[in-house]
Amino acid sequence: MADSITTEPGTVDGPTGAIGEPLIVLDHVDKHFGALHVLKDVNLTVHRGEVVVVIGPSGSGKSTLCRTINRLETIDSGTITVDGRPLPAEGRELARLRADVGMVFQSFNLFAHKTVLENVTLGQVKAKKVRPAEARDTAMELLERVGVANQASKLPAQLSGGQQQRVAIARALAMKPKALLFDEPTSALDPEMINEVLDVMVGLARDGMTMVVVTHEMGFARRAAHRVVFMDAGQVVEEAEPETFFTAPRSDRAKDFLSKILTH
């Protein structure tokens, strides 16, 4: 296993460029939903510029892990730090965290009554206090980048699922985040729309965006990830570079999981 997947500080080279110092650190994190123990003593470090893909069976805690990083879910014990700072509890600091750590959801979460352009400009103006004209220019650049600039005047309902998800990515990018979290970003899409979203994500990875991606898309993990994290029953069971994980998983649980999802 190469040094680029360790959690030691320092700069190393991964498949999509340079990786820097730790940016997101989960230390002995536990989370319960009532009697259900959904995260069990989770330790994970994501470095600046690193793409970490989190996989595992349904109910393994993947989405909960993702949602704790920008405090959409609170934790019961342990610590989470972003860029050296613990997660804030509420107020302006929490809003700033959610700008710094953007999230792209399974269900797009666009404002249905606002145009595509308005969806991408609103956060810039309200949260970042960017002038409307500047926000509009940034929005159009990002919509061009994700391939939907020609849809700027439409409402979300007039777009395909793949187009809506690309707008959601542009909206997150408009906040100039330090990292992006993706929670099953393609699972609500028709099969023919999946690749158009994954291609945008691969481009972000190549550009050096720090990303934590919960997904069932193993092809994306192979193409874009520096590291694959395999979870089961609320625990990080195994983590490795994609090639190592997919060709020589160490744990019996990972071997069993891969045997069921990989077709040859």
Automatic annotation (TrEMBL):
Its main location: membrane. GO terms for cellular component: plasma membrane. Its EC number is 7.4.2.1. It catalyses: a polar amino acid(out) + ATP + H2O = a polar amino acid(in) + ADP + phosphate + H(+). Keywords: Amino-acid transport, ATP-binding, Cell membrane, Membrane, Nucleotide-binding, Transport. It is found in: Cell membrane. CDD domains: ABC_HisP_GlnQ (cd03262). The keyword Membrane applies. One of its GO terms (molecular function) is ATP hydrolysis activity. It is an enzyme of class 7 (translocase). Pfam families: ABC_tran. SUPFAM superfamilies: P-loop containing nucleoside triphosphate hydrolases. It is a peripheral membrane protein. InterPro entries: AAA+_ATPase (IPR003593), ABC_ATPase_HisP-typ (IPR030679), ABC_transporter-like_ATP-bd (IPR003439), ABC_transporter-like_CS (IPR017871), MetN_ABC_transporter-like (IPR050086), P-loop_NTPase (IPR027417). It comes from the Bacteria. The keyword ATP-binding applies. Residues 24-258 form the ABC transporter domain. Belongs to the ABC transporter superfamily. This is ABC-type polar-amino-acid transporter. The lineage of its organism: Bacteria, Bacillati, Actinomycetota, Actinomycetes, Micrococcales.
